[in-house]
Amino acid sequence: MSGLLEPGAPRAAGLTDDRAVLQAMLDVESAWVRVQRQLGLVDDDVVAVVADACDAAGHDVEGIGTAAEGGGNPVIPMLASLRERVGDAAAAVHRGLTSQDVVDSALMLLVARAAEQLSQHLADAADAAARLAVEHRDTVQVARTLAQPALPTTFGLKAAGWLGALDDVADELAGLRRTLPVQCGGAAGTLAAVEALVPGRSAEAAGLLADELGLADPGRPWHTDRGPMTRVGDCLVRAADAMGKVAIDVVTLSRAEIAEVHEPSDDGRGGSSTLPQKRNPVLSVLVRSVAIEAPHLGATLHSAAGLAVDERPDGAWHAEWGALLRLLRRVVVAASQTRELLTGLEVDADAMRRNADAVGPALVAERLLREVARLPGGASAVSALRPALVGGARAKHLMPILRAYLPEQVLSDDAVADLLDPARYVGAAGDLVDRAVARHLRDDRTTTLSTDHGGAQ
Q1: What is each CA distance from 127 to 281, 361, 412, in whole angstroms?
Q2: What CA–CA distance (Å, rounded) separates 216 from 206?
Q3: What fold characterizes domain 99-181+222-352+432-447?
Q4: At a CB cut-off of 8 Å and minimum separation 6, what does 296 contact?
Q5: Cβ(332)–Cβ(121) under 8 Å?
Q6: How far is residue 389's CA from residue 96's CA, in Å, rounded to a whole number?
């Protein structure tokens, strides 16, 4: 991990570093000795000795990392260090397991531990999005399609879109956490060594290991079925996608020529090394960087899954480690940044209305032309209105055209004003906001949200 070239990395400190990986592997070894105690293979003294030795602080993390090259993975030097510390209990350490059992189970533990923090960040970010949706339920904003003004919308609906995606990811992550599997198959996935130790109980032993670690029992080894890894990767990439959408919206809307939202300010944040007047949306920029990188890390996991040859992979397995840990760390950091971004987001409702008014009647052209066409003489009026709307005509320019074909009795001034008011043509935006927020609350998510529709107009 490079703190210099990975801004924000300290937000995920201790989740995926070498010490965390070593501790997770030691946790697997300690749990396996406890399983052996349940199976009658060792006594409580052995369990206690091994447990005392399974503290990463008592091992040379850097030395184990250096020695890992010799066997192609860190389990072999870790075991040498552990056995040296447990004395006569060494015979019970790792008995019946293989290196991949330990590494895969340890990685699932790391995912579970990081997912707890990730879930909280996502929940906080979703709560913030829900509050924005409620507060700005009726705040008119320009909807832009293909980067151009299209129709009126509300900022509440945009925030509700963020909310729905974040809630989807939270649900997917919750489901993933319940199914993170233990790995227990022995040297070739047959549990042969365990079966020799406890005839007829090897599958039970694998299930006991899952229980000890708080992981799921998949009912079979998955040494070369890397679905568990790709499912983790897919969930993390999906989270990065959802957060990336928030980030790109904030980057776009905070441009000086739009200026509808601003990131929360903080000392030293958003500055430029050259231009003192700049306030850069750095939280969004950093979240975007994760959204850009994450799919490629996820693709590495899929590539490795498709190349998991025979009964134990020859390099594909090894390729997963760096991709998974970096993806896990980067997404946790992005979630923390997204939480901070949404919690303190500054929304300028007046700027949104000014921008809507600046587009002029073209923003409601769809409604105007449709309603005018229904009136007597409306077809001729529509033919005259179209080029004026394309040319950016203001309301004062449209009135003479309308009056040339539609007298006051057919279309009153008040009716024209209504047709040209963008707040009168936001469709079901309010109802869609309400539905998104109701779902957020219904699913028992922790929130301090008020559902008072007191949003700015």
Answers
A1: 21, 35, 45
A2: 10
A3: Fumarase C; Chain A, domain 2 (1.20.200)
A4: none
A5: yes
A6: 77
* 203 phi, psi to nearest 5 deg: -65, -35
Residue 272 annotated among the catalytic residues of the structure: yes
Contact partners, residue 383, CB within 8 Å, separation at least 6: none
Q: What is the DSSP string of 348-366?
A: -HHHHHHHHHHHGGGGGHH
Question: Which of 145, 58, 41 minimizes the C-alpha distance to 94?
Answer: 41
For residue range 387-420, list pLDDT tens digits in order.
999 999 999 999 999 999 999 999 999 999 999 9
CA distance 275 to 273: 6
Percent of the chain with pLDDT over 70: 94
Question: From the candidates 272, 383, 412, 450, which is the catalytic residue?
Answer: 272
CB-based burial label for 28 (10 Å; 0-12, 13-18, 19+): buried
Q: How buried is residue 57: exposed, middle or buried, by Cβ count under 10 Å (0-12/13-18/19+)?
A: exposed
Which of 85, 312, 403, 439 is the catalytic position? 312
Report which of 286, 324, 320 is spatially closest to residue 303, judged by C-alpha positions.
Answer: 320
Q: For residues 447 and 441, is the Cβ–Cβ distance under 8 A?
A: yes
* Pairing, β 261-262 against β 148-154: unpaired
Contact criterion met (CB below 8 Å) for 38 and 208:
yes
pTM greater than the 0.90 cutoff = yes
Q: Which pLDDT score, from 0 to 100, does residue 134 have?
A: 98
Assign residue 200 a region: left if phi > 0, alpha if psi is -120 to 50, beta otherwise? left
Please list, in sequence order, all residues whose beta carbon lies within 8 angstroms of the beta carbon of residue 289, skipping any fewer than 6 positions away: none
Give me 34's structure tokens.
Answer: 């406890």
Q: Is the Cβ–Cβ distance between 88 and 303 less than 8 Å?
A: no
What are the domain boundaries of the chain? 1-97+183-218, 99-181+222-352+432-447, 354-424
Q: Is 339 a catalytic residue?
A: no
Q: What is the pLDDT of residues 48-88, one digit of tens each?
A: 999 999 999 999 999 999 999 999 999 999 999 999 999 99
Rounded Cα distance between 429 and 422, Å, is 12
* Beta pairing, strands 140-145 & 346-347: unpaired
Q: What are the tokens at 201? A: 């109980």
Q: Which fold has domain 1-97+183-218?
A: Fumarase C; Chain B, domain 1 (1.10.275)
Q: Which residues of the chain have pLDDT under 70?
A: 1-2, 267-278, 444-457
Nearest CA to 328 out of 240, 243, 218, 226 is that of 240
